[in-house]
Design goal:
This protein has 136 residues and is mainly α. The chain is 68% helix and 3% strand. The protein contains five helices and two strands. The chain has helices at 2-28, 57-61, 64-70, 79-95, 99-135; strands spanning 38-39, 42-43. The chain has a two-stranded antiparallel ribbon. β1 (38-39) and β2 form a beta hairpin. It is elongated and about 65 Å long.
Length: 136
């Protein structure tokens, strides 16, 4: 029974973040009245051109300073800290020659799955510790 519960917990930990991300995006999609942007044949939620009122794909493709100036509300005092790793990651992704694919592979798949993997390992080790504690 413990192995089955552990398996279900682990599957839920793998699926939940991605399901939550999709659910939030789909919940917000009907609220956005702007013309969507087409990228690689897919319709996006946000528009493409620069806009001071809402976040757009312009920030992603051209400059983050526009986004930082008009859209970021809470992190402004931390730009000196956050811009260093952010710029490093963006620069390294662009160096791959295929920024879109690198972004998906590293930031959407490898990085989150690595975190989830170590979380599951930690929980499994805690289960083993608890089991050993009960045997005493």
């Amino acid at each position: 029974m413990l192995k089955r519960n552990r398996f279900l917990r682990n599957i839920l930990l793998i699926i939940a973040p991605f399901a939550l991300m999709v659910a939030i995006n789909e919940f917000e999609r009907p609220k956005i009245n702007n013309k969507s942007y087409s990228y690689h044949g897919f319709s996006t939620i946000n528009p493409g051109g620069p806009n001071t009122q809402i976040c757009t794909w312009d920030c992603h493709f051209h400059t983050t300073t526009h986004c930082q100036k008009y859209h970021v509300k809470f992190l402004k005092p931390f730009y000196k800290v956050t811009d260093i790793p952010y710029d490093f990651v963006i620069h390294r992704l662009r160096e791959t020659g295929n920024y879109d694919l690198a972004n998906i592979v590293f930031l959407v798949l490898l990085f989150p799955f690595t975190i989830i993997y170590f979380l599951i390992k930690s929980l499994n080790l805690q289960d083993e510790i608890n089991k050993l504690s009960e045997q005493k």
